[in-house]
Amino acid sequence: MAEKTVLTLGRIRFAVQLVMLFVTVYGSVIVGTYMADKISNALPALSCAYDQMNGGYCVLIPTQHILHHRIGEALVRAQQLTFGMVLPLLMTFLTFFAFFFVIGKAFCGWVCPLGTLQEWIGKLGRRFGIGVRRFVPGDLGNVRRVRPLKWLILLGLVFVLPLATGLGVTPHSLGNPYCDICPSRVATTLLTGNTEQLALRLGDGVSFTLGAIANLLVGFTLVGALALRQPFCRICPLLAFNAVFQRLSPMRLAKPSREKCGSCHICTEACPMDIPEISQQEGRKAYHEECTLCGRCAEYCPQDGVIRLKWGPWSLFSSSRDYYKGRVQRELPDGTVKPLKFVKSAARTTHGAADA
Question: What does pTM read for this prediction?
């Protein structure tokens, strides 16, 4: 008898990721290049402006450009700060808030093309029998030490250096330094068949260094994702940017109390960001700044109604023992799935030879 297909939150998210990967990488195929440019230039997800076929790009590129070309250069000319300089930045943030208000940090877990690629590469690794490695094995305390990096990148590369460049303090090559090293710039443009972003620029040392860092980062991100869950997301400045405003969106993770929580820590094991607070805390502290609202903690919580995805007063998904039992039959909390048949056969052959 054929196995009945069960609609799970994970499968719904997979479908959304598939659609949004197409929209954020190839969106202009549907609406045209001109309209794609008008849809948005302030998405709360890493959708690269260097991709000429996408359907809108992330808030970090206009933020850098406005600080560099408008505010910084205006200050160095000692001009009065007018609406002609403030308004574009204000409109960028208003556009960002309009999108962010609807689904909040779920942009990271459901829409971001680089996040989707990392997750799918990880699933491929599991299919080929590559074991899951925790980002820092055996010591979640070290995960907390990695967390400040995304804030330093946001402050230094997205805000300080572009503004300093506009003021003439730093070279012109540092006008949008984050985008010059962003792995999404390389990864998503490669999906369109464009290899230009892989090329190193030899015009000056700064451009060459930034390009080399970008290639190293995209290599680490895509290869590392085979064994490490969401490696770049942990240092992504857009995750930090979204975290600043996460309380302003009605979309959130809710764990009202730990009374029914069995302290099994399965939710942390299921979390691709290895967030210990989801199993250790309750209320606002359980919805940590690292959360991407992917919903895996709620899917893999074996207790009824302990963890929920909510939009305002409405519960969109709630943890359930029955749901958990069905979910673990297809995929374990750490992402382990059944390997491909030829991988299992090769493993049996290897073991057989060793026994002989």
Answer: 0.80
